[in-house]
Design brief:
CATH superfamily: Vaccinia Virus protein VP39
Order of helices and strands: HHEEHEHEHEHEHEHEHE
Structural class: alpha/beta
Radius of gyration: 18 Å
Helix content: 40-55%
Distance between the termini: 34 Å
Largest sheet: 7 strands, mixed
Number of helices: 9
Length: 245
């Protein structure tokens, strides 16, 4: 057997077996819960900008970006811009003519300034407005139109209702064999004290929206390999593979 193929097959089997390991799954869940309390995700930067993501998810994202080779990555939710810059830098390394489009209801001036002066801004465009606003959605559709490979990441308001509507509006833009990634599905296992004063929490979050979405949309399926591989992260059940046009 080709040694590269052999390694790849061994890796697939390791990941599958890891997903069945109840001990490591329990420890991973405990870490995820406690790390949400300590605001673990706020501790990391990418090329100088706060990324507010778990490193495990970002490793997964570069795997997906390399595999999909998207012409555009659409992300709702910008915050400090670290993930925009991260995705743009991966596209820069790939070297193809592609860019990242960020949408946020409030792009704060100090963050906008830092993003615009960053070297990776050459591969970034931004739209200020609600991801659910019809005008904004139309603008995003305009960017996606005609692109062969479109990838979407949802990471803005984390209530069930909001994410459900984002899934309705943005999922049709995702192309076959690409991904729709829904972040913060881990809110479903978050302790109540983590979500104090926020409109989302267990029973009302991106994971509940994803599960309802998959009941009525057959284009997508959860890529279980990312659940089994990562174990720790903020997007369990959130890596959705698009199976059809």
């Amino acid at each position: 057997m080709n040694p590269i193929q052999k390694f790849q097959e061994e890796c697939v089997e390791r990941i599958r077996e890891q997903g069945k390991n109840e001990t490591i799954a329990r420890h991973a869940r405990d870490f995820t819960v406690e790390s949400m309390r300590s605001q673990y995700s706020y501790n990391f930067t990418w090329m100088g900008r706060p990324i507010i993501q778990y490193p495990q998810d970002m490793v997964a994202m570069q795997e997906i970006i390399w595999k999909v080779q998207p012409d555009i990555i659409i992300e709702t939710g910008i915050a400090h811009g670290g993930s925009l810059i991260y995705y743009a830098s991966i596209l820069e390394l790939i070297g193809k003519d592609a860019y990242v489009l960020g949408v946020d209801i409030d792009i704060r001036t100090h963050n906008k300034t830092e993003i615009e002066k960053h070297p990776m801004f050459k591969r970034i465009e931004m739209i200020q407005g609600s991801a659910l606003d019809e005008t904004v959605v139309a603008q995003v559709r305009g960017h996606a139109k005609g692109k062969k490979r479109v990838m979407v990441c949802l990471d803005s308001n984390h209530t069930h209702e909001h994410v459900q509507k984002e899934l309705e509006f943005y999922s049709p833009m995702v192309t076959k064999d690409s991904y729709l990634v829904v972040f913060d599905t881990a809110v479903e296992i978050a302790p109540e004290d983590v979500n104090d004063n926020r409109p989302w929490g267990p029973g009302n979050n991106p994971m509940t929206a994803v599960h309802d979405f998959l009941k009525i949309n057959s284009r997508f399926e959860i890529d279980q390999a990312y659940n089994d591989k990562l174990l720790i992260g903020m997007a369990p059940d959130g890596y959705l593979l698009c199976k059809t046009d």
